[in-house]
Design goal:
Radius of gyration of chain B: 23 Å
Number of domains of chain A: 1
Strand content of chain A: under 5%
Distance between the termini of chain B: 39 Å
Oligomer: heterodimer
Shape of chain B: globular
Number of helices of chain A: 14
CATH class of chain B: Mainly Alpha
CATH topology of chain B: MetI-like fold
Radius of gyration of chain A: 26 Å
Largest sheet of chain A: 2 strands, antiparallel
Helix content of chain B: over 70%
Number of strands of chain B: 0
Largest sheet of chain B: none
Number of strands of chain A: 2
């Protein structure tokens, strides 16, 4: 027995050592999904004392306000990602292509730093700043831009503001990484071929940075879709999003089955989105391949033209 | 027109960058500043004082929360480094490298899903929530970071080094300890620091999985914020900021950030 175990251990050591991580993953990630899926389709009948299969909770979600809430979260995440992109691109461009070497390290450091503190601290910082007695309110009242009764907190704009400031570094870093790695000779080549700087940006730099942009959008869109603390603290209870509904279902109203169904739908949405992106890329790739194939065929067919 | 564009590049771009940094730092700056304010209401500056920090040190709840956070963070860092590194090294040597794609899910999914997943798993099997569920959840997040980072470094290593070591008569274990671990060290330190901060800062998983007995610092701060503005929260937040700035500084001085960024 001992011998057999020893043999397994030495021969299959790679398997043995990679097991803990895979096992951890299965027990604490995939099994919970199974449990959630179970919760969402199985209900308990109190009269007969039996469990039964039901799609009631999914129907409930699709026929009531919940689906609107999901779309609202989707919209919020999309707005956040778009605003982040608009701010992040110039910053990443500057960091990668303009700044001097020493200065760049400092800028990069100070970019990572805020995202390394707790999200709660970042949100509280905005909360403190925008609060009724806070710094910005005081300043705006002092300059008579707003009246004392005007609240800066608890509106949609503040939620987006908080989201963007928390997730901005996650958009900047991937774009920066791609631009930094880019071969700078392409810029020279483009300039040599007569393109001005705008043209170079439009036709060389931007297309080459697209992988970073996609990564950034994923990194911002998905967490902001599920975000709970920012809308709750900065938006008050007026704005309800997917994350806050789930918190409510699981921790307050205790309707776990509905919460589980909501969670399952929420998991499916980003996955679907990723599939769409992947599919789009595959189709484009196929299209490009066909184009180049057609071009080769064209060249072959007209060989005599070129001599 | 051309002049205009040149002007745009030289003037507008740094302006945008400056505005973005101001946007990121203004709230933090004000927050830290007012943690030294000698007034119970945040509105006006009443002079410099450390009384909120004093109150902080004398508050048993905060110290308990800090202790819980530290226990969870240390355990999470240790576990995810151990499991993650074993996985990376073993899966390269063997045939299990297919599994490494499984771990991207941990970062890609909204964190709230991991949190309720673990909550419902523990309740489903009637296991009480507490340190166990917290460490389980945080390690899940940690694996999602440790495995790609360590892997990026590991695939760069020259396989000749391990082969030489094995040829010279070292066992797998000795090779692992004396050759691979030292070579992986920068990435191990980087991902360890990352996981430690991640676990300290994490709010959602802690919020769902801590149960009634354990409270981490982030959850405690959240519950304080819900009751309203209090300069003591500023003081706690400042401590958070100081700790994480130290960690980032450490990370940057190790020059691993650039490496990780440009290799992924």
């Amino acid at each position: 027995m001992k011998k057999a175990l020893r043999a397994i251990f030495t021969q299959e050591s790679s398997f043995v050592f990679s097991c803990p991580a895979v096992l951890w993953q299965f027990v604490f990630l995939y099994m919970p999904f199974a449990v959630l899926a179970l919760y969402s389709v199985i209900d308990f009948n109190e009269v007969t004392g039996r469990y039964f299969l039901t799609a009631f909770y999914y129907r409930e979600i699709f026929t009531s306000l919940y689906i609107q809430i999901i779309f609202r979260s989707f919209l919020l995440a999309a707005i956040t990602a778009a605003v982040c992109f608009l701010i992040a691109y110039p910053v990443a461009y500057f960091l990668a292509l303009k700044g001097s070497k020493r200065f760049k390290t400092f800028l990069l450091f100070s970019l990572i730093f805020p995202s390394w503190t707790s999200l709660i601290v970042q949100v509280y910082a905005w909360f403190f700043l925008l609060e009724k007695n806070g710094f910005i309110s005081w300043f705006l009242q002092w300059t008579h831009i707003i009246s004392p009764s005007f609240h800066l907190l608890n509106n949609y704009f503040t939620i987006v503001l908080g989201m963007v400031s928390c997730f901005l570094p996650f958009m900047i870093l991937p774009i920066y990484a791609v631009l930094e790695k880019m071969d700078k000779r392409f810029l020279e080549a483009s300039a040599d071929l007569g393109a001005d700087r705008f043209e170079t940006f439009r036709r060389v730099v931007f297309p080459m940075s697209l992988p970073g942009v996609y990564a950034g959008i994923m990194l911002v869109f998905i967490p902001s879709f599920g975000e709970f603390a920012i809308p709750t603290l900065l938006g008050g209870s007026k704005y309800v999003f997917w994350g806050s509904v789930i918190v409510d279902k699981f921790l307050r109203s205790r309707s776990w089955r509905l919460g589980a169904a909501l969670a399952i739908i929420g998991i499916m949405l980003p996955i679907l989105l990723m599939c769409c992106v992947y599919l789009g890329r595959a189709i484009r790739e196929r299209y490009r391949q066909r184009q180049s194939k057609e071009y080769t065929e064209y060249l072959n067919a007209n060989k005599d033209l070129w001599g | 027109m051309v002049e205009n564009r040149k002007y745009l590049g030289q003037f507008l771009l740094p302006l945008v960058v400056g505005a973005a940094y101001l946007f990121l730092y203004l709230p933090i700056f004000v927050l830290v500043l007012f943690s030294f304010n000698d007034a119970s209401f945040s509105i006006s500056w009443q002079g410099f004082s450390l009384r909120w920090y004093e109150k902080l040190i004398n508050s048993p709840e905060i110290l308990n929360a800090l202790q819980a956070s530290l226990i969870v963070a240390l355990a999470t860092t240790f576990l995810s480094l151990l499991i993650g590194t074993c996985f990376v090294v073993a899966s390269r040597w063997g045939r299990t490298s297919f599994f490494s794609n499984l771990f991207y899910v941990n970062i890609l999914l909204p964190e709230i899903v991991l949190a309720i997943g673990i909550l419902s798993l523990f309740t489903f099997f009637r296991i009480p929530l507490g340190y166990g569920s917290l460490i389980a959840g945080h390690t899940l997040l940690g694996l999602g970071f440790v495995i790609p980072i360590v892997r990026a470094r590991f695939v760069e290593l020259d396989p000749v080094l391990t082969e030489a070591s094995l040829d010279l008569g070292a066992t797998y274990w000795v090779t692992f300890r004396k050759v691979i671990i030292p070579l992986l060290m920068p990435s191990l330190i980087a991902s360890g620091l990352l996981v430690f901060t991640l676990s300290m800062d994490d709010f959602l998983i802690s919020f769902f999985c801590s149960g009634p007995t354990v409270q981490t610092l982030a959850v405690y701060v959240y519950s304080m914020i819900r009751t309203g503005v209090d300069p003591m929260i500023n003081a706690v937040s400042t401590c958070f900021l100081v700790i994480s700035s130290l960690l980032v500084f450490l990370l940057c001085s190790l020059k691993v950030v650039d490496q990780v960024l440009t290799h992924e």
